[in-house]
Specification:
By secondary structure, this protein is α/β, with parallel strands linked by helices. It has 12 helices and 9 strands. The chain is globular, with a radius of gyration of 19 Å.
């Protein structure tokens, strides 16, 4: 049966740990990787622009001996020029796996239902499972393990936070979301929620920040800047956290909004390494999905 990755919960805890192990092997000994994707082609269709998601997937494919094709959303017009099902059935004949970066989660879900090759969610309004894999990889590299670790996510209960909450629950970690009232998770997400950012970081191993206004929310920007102002990750907030706590950000960052430059560029921030881990986590994912 064709496996897809639409949400992080499509993976078991065992599969997550296997992917993280494989990602570290690829990172630490690239000379031993070989070309497991030789002759394989990855198709990318992005309704939303991206630096890290596109570059990391294309780099991962090439480093494993494969190749990629990229199409912007305007070139394909998923669900407009033709149905999701027609696109999925045809595109599945051209590529060995596809990555979709979309506005609506139903788009990637509808394509996956009809596709005959693996479909990977490169971001939707509901979930960002590939980011969650890279986040877990980064935390494990920094602390040696994931079990028992606490992530304080400061800001919006968005797709990144939601996927990371489920990922943490799968591997024995926990996530605390500090957000303004009305910007939290829907019921069913395994995380504690609070409106007190300082309380959230007191026992944190990781302090995680993300933009307050995501793509598609531009009309809400002024209101979001006002409401989220008390949730900036800055030196004062870090002072309330344990000395060992590290800072993560999925990037791109809006410096001076959700995070200050002194924190983002400071010695406790691992955002650059975290971004690099996207490539290794996704290389492991592609190898797992395509090399039987």
């Amino acid at each position: 049966m064709t496996r897809h990755l639409l949400e992080i919960t499509d993976l078991t805890a065992h599969e997550i740990h296997r992917l993280l192990d494989d990602a570290d092997r690829i990172r630490l000994a690239p000379q031993n990787v070989g070309t497991p994707l030789a002759g394989r082609l990855l198709g990318l269709v992005f309704e939303k622009p991206s630096l890290r998601t596109r570059a990391s997937f294309e780099s991962a494919a090439v480093r494993l001996g494969g190749a990629s094709l990229f199409f912007s959303g305007g070139e394909v017009n998923l669900g407009v020029r033709e149905s999701y099902e027609d696109f999925a059935r045809v595109f599945s004949q051209y590529v060995d796996a596809m990555v979709l970066r979309v506005f609506s989660h139903e788009t990637v879900a509808a394509v996956a239902r009809a596709a005959t090759v693996p479909v990977i969610n490169g971001l939707s309004d509901l979930a960002h499972p590939c980011q969650a894999l890279a986040d877990l990889l980064t935390i494990r590299q920094e602390f040696g393990s994931l079990a028992g670790k606490t992530v304080a996510f400061i800001g919006d209960g968005n797709n990144v936070a939601r996927s990371l909450a489920f990922a943490c629950a799968l591997v024995g970690a926990k996530l605390i979301l500090a957000r303004p009232a009305g910007y939290g998770f829907a019921p069913g997400v395994p995380a504690r929620q609070t409106t007190d950012a300082r309380a959230a970081v007191r026992t944190a191993d990781v302090i995680y920040s993300d933009v307050w206004t995501s793509m598609g929310q531009e009309a809400e920007r002024v209101e979001r800047l006002r409401v989220f102002a008390p949730y900036q990750v800055n030196s004062d907030l870090l002072a309330a956290a344990p000395p060992h706590a590290l800072v993560m950000h999925c990037l791109p960052a809006h410096r001076g909004e959700e995070i200050t430059s002194d924190v983002l560029d400071g010695p406790r921030c691992v955002a650059v390494r975290q971004a690099g881990n996207r490539m290794y986590a996704q290389a492991a994912l592609l190898q797992w999905l395509l090399v039987k």
